[in-house]
Amino acid sequence: MTAQALDEIKIGGLGSSRKRVEDDRFIRGKGNYTDDIVLPGMLHMEILRSPLPHARIKSIDTSKAWAVPGVHLVLTGEMMATRNLAWMPTLSYDTQAVLATDKVRFQGQEVACVIADDPYIAKDACELIEVDYEPLPVIVNPWQGLEPGAPVIRDDKEGQAGNVIYNWEVGDKAGTDRAFEQADLISKLELHYPRSHPSPIECCGSVADFNRATQKLTVYMTTQAPHIIRAAVAMVAELPEQMIRIVSPDIGGGFGNKVPVYPGYVCSILASILLERPVKWIEDKTGNLISTGFARDIYLKGEMALRKDGKILGVRMHTDADHGAFFSDAQPSKFKIGLMHSAFAAYDIPAAHLTARGVYTNKAPGGVAYRCSFRVTEAMFFQERMMQAAADDLGIDQAAFRRMNFVRDDDFPHRTPFGFLTDSGQYAKCLDVGLAAIDYEKFREEQAQARKRGRLLGLGISTMTEPLGAGNSREYDILGIKMFDSAELKVHMTGKAILRTGAKTQGQGHETTWAQIVAHELGIPAVDVTVEEGDTDTAPFGMGTYASRSTPVAGAAVAMVARKIRAKARKLAAHLLEVSEEDIEWELGRFYVRSSPERGASIQECAMAAYSNMPDGMEPGLENTAYYDPPNLTWPFAVYIVTVEVDPETGVWDVLRMVAVDDCGVRINPMIVEGQIMGGLTEAYAMSSMQFITFDADGNCVGSNYMDYLLPSAWETPGYELHSEVVTPCPHHPIGAKGIGECAAVGGPAAFVNAVMDALSDSGVRNIDMPVLPDRVWEAITYRRDVSGAPPVRQD
Amino acid sequence: MTMVYDDLGDEAAEEVPVCRIRFTINGAKKVAEIEPRLLLADLIRRGVGLTGTHRGCDTTNCGACTVLVDGVAIKSCTMLAVQVDGREVTTVEGLATASELHPIQEGFKQEHGLQCGFCTPGMMLAAKALLDRNPDPTEEDVRWALSGNLCRCTGYQNIVKSVLWAAEKLRAEA
Amino acid sequence: MFPSRFRYEAPHSLDEAISLLSGGDDVKVLAGGQSLVPMMKLRFASPEMLVDINNVPGLAYHRADPDGSLRIGALCRHADLEHSDLLKGSQPTMAAAAPLVADPLVRNRGTLVGSLCHADPQGDWASVMLALGGSVIAQGPNGRRAIPLAGFVTGPFENTLAHDEIAVEAVVPPAQGARSGGYLKLERRVGDFATVGTAVAIEMSGNTVIRAGIALTGVGGSTIGATEAAAALTGKPLTAGSIAEAADLAAGAAQPRTDHRGSAEYKRHMVRVFVSRILGGSLAAATAERAA
User: B17: which chain C residues are within 8 Å (Cβ-Cβ)?
Assistant: First the structure.
């Protein structure tokens, strides 16, 4: 390295906590969210939703709605059906109703929509639509749907005999059975991970604009995956892709809620085509919570075969997933229950077997969403709750039990019993950091002393590694499309650049961080690299941003395209310096002649040369595209430790401290990484303490607005102590980075729950389902019994 | 000034009550002819065309719509537009001057107090109302003052730091 | 999300407002609007006309009168009460409740009097005012009248105001002894409706409780006055025994339902715990004061 090499941090390369580019417009109120978009002649759409969870539609009378001044169109399922649009394919090879025709199958389902001059008028007109319903019996949990004689919810599907969607299994049954035969002790656990909802503050919406003159359809919409939407619209509307432009502008939070295709989008597109005017649909929070892609709602049970010294010999798991009325999960097609079988990946377990079943119920469709990495939230929650139970059964310390079963640093690459390949980690070191930070021994002493005085303190540990960065083309696809991602980099003659990727940021800071990768690879200051995402007319094809896949896949593509550029720039440098390529060395920002390092060419000089001084035979320009098919997923590791105090009289618990140790490999922008972790921890806290959707016995949704679906505010949310000492680079990622966006939401909830259960350990209680509400804690303490949270909710 | 509407007929027009109001928004004087049922958030977003104030929920919980009316922080989705007749409205667009960001805006950038940015305008205005009243708040004061504004992205810790950063800068400038 | 159409008037005097109310059947008064507007947005309420009293001068006060009564004007906001030194110094039950109403932004607009009129069974102020023996002052075309809180609410969201009356003030009667008490609310987060709320307001003379009021939020179809529990405290010294008895009786007065916020049994238990804790605090304070 010569004295002329650039300082990586100064130019905003890897490891720089540069301030965010996105902020400049957001702090000025100049964001461009979907509802901010106003097009000439734009109309407004409102959806009429079913008040009943399961009912036959006998008739729909829209005449009064049509008569309201300012109404341009009223759409019903019948009208959609004449255009073959009443049903649409889902991302899981099922079908979903766009507007109900024969029946409504969940409370809140879309029944009709009104397009009018103004959203207030559209709402007025919706109220005048008369629907005659014939109520049907309601199913609010899988068990009701599995009873003999239960109504078949999907009687629209030929050959659908009951309410089961799929049965699936993975692992080694015979080997696992043998392990259980040899066990000294078998630990069991059963729990319900409640229905939750990503609930970004911004709801879903679209502005569809079909231009009859050009035959081009433009849709501005809240989507985390614009190219997937374009593909879906192309299939459903039978338009060629180049005549469909999906623009994902600024997104006010995604968290997986903005991946699926929703009926509102389809209706707004059809309305625009019919009316030849732009049509805006923005749902309200109730619509969002009651009908869009929810998360979790899964029953998990398992057993662990244990040797008496604490070694885990095998694990069995069974999951029953409540998918609602349509199987519309966005997840890799080979894995019916997503990556649930990544459970226990951090531990060296010889044998495991998992069976999974999915069931229809009269609820909103979905299951895969909410910072879940394709069901990994459920997997890791069960894992750490099971680890806690097993350690208790064995009488072994929680931390020691985990440590003794960890995959060891020198065991990598390690094949898990479910077939995943973990490749890197320093699990024990992370645990050491966490235990030191929380002052583990001291806390256990304080806890014992406090117990004598009737105070209930608790400590909960959650450790996990999770697969992020779906995914390699051998195993991962959505609707057959492989899950690669892309980056296109154009370096202009002045050496400034524009980068476009197939990802779509919703707050993760891609405009800031991708430029840092380019700065790292090419020495172009990050501030000179503009990043754009989200417009299918300009962005290279990608599968979007969710499941923490962007740094692992799109980020890798950014590094690879920058390297392609650098390879060409090297040739240009050699030409400029009049030496052969073998004599050229690279340092950050410039090429130089090995034998006389003061002779060099900056990357900017190379860029200029690409347009003005090319060697013979070289194509001009300095632009390229990379599509990246990741060889494997990445495996960040985390240790989350929470301490709480529980008030035994009221059941209310408060967080004392929350320590997070995250090893996500190389951190592009430490400030942004920490922001992601704190956001995830807050989701974890929310789910563990107050946030859930449930249903009463009549199928009414409880939690369809913010009065009942509780997000913690700044007042309730605890403070976090974050640790970044342990860095284990990903061996296969071009810059050694791993995903991080979802880790805390994945591993966090168990830490909170384990802490409360630890505080209650004298009560003999095994499990309290999340959210661990005060009344549930009180019931557990008072009656010394487990508390389930599964629907239907108990009511007088 | 020219405004063209679809002519929906005299009968239809008669049914619609209309009020005329005068108000100031970010220092600019405005006149509006609006239905009484128009919510203040919609007057701001669609009437005046300032889209920095956001709609997040339908039950007056999330605070993304927070603006200042006569300096008081309120949820603009739960106030009728007609109620700002004769009053001064401040939105996020009114925080910066022509040449400078408000220290609160700077603080949010310095301390990574935003990710998706959707709750941010409301947060900043609620924070401004706090700092106008209490220039030296504790962390607890900040969390309490912002407890009517929900965020899904940040976990609030950096929002608190942003507000405290701004408080310190404002005290230094005072 | 959007209200249905209505006509709107914004009078500048009480007389004007009252005459507007007389003009129709389906007319509602708009003060803070933090309860009414959300209901209208969800179309649970669709009045034909709103009479906005925010421009009527002279209603934003709260003050202690020479006779010792506390008067709260119709436009006194929750925030005014939360930050009130007067309340902090002389009205412990009210001072405890004010910060717990809704959230800081809603408190900037919402009014105590409006909240009482709205008669939400989960409203916090109703319990506080009931425990304090408060009244609502109604003004109509024929003048003013005082309506004690105990008879003011007739059902969920229903009060005894005539259709042409406006509630202009709430009154807390003067104390005979030293005020003590508080308000505890079990909410899962700021702005949540109360799972359980308890208002306890006592007046002591020496060690004896000379007046007591206990009222419960969220554990019945409307605010519950735990009169038996209050009576059990009155005329006696405040002791651990009398507190336990009152707490039990208050729990017995509750009529909670089991729902997603908890079992009826839990809610009844929490009434007992809250009443005990508030009165325990009063006892400790009184004991400390006597020792000092």
Answer: 5-8
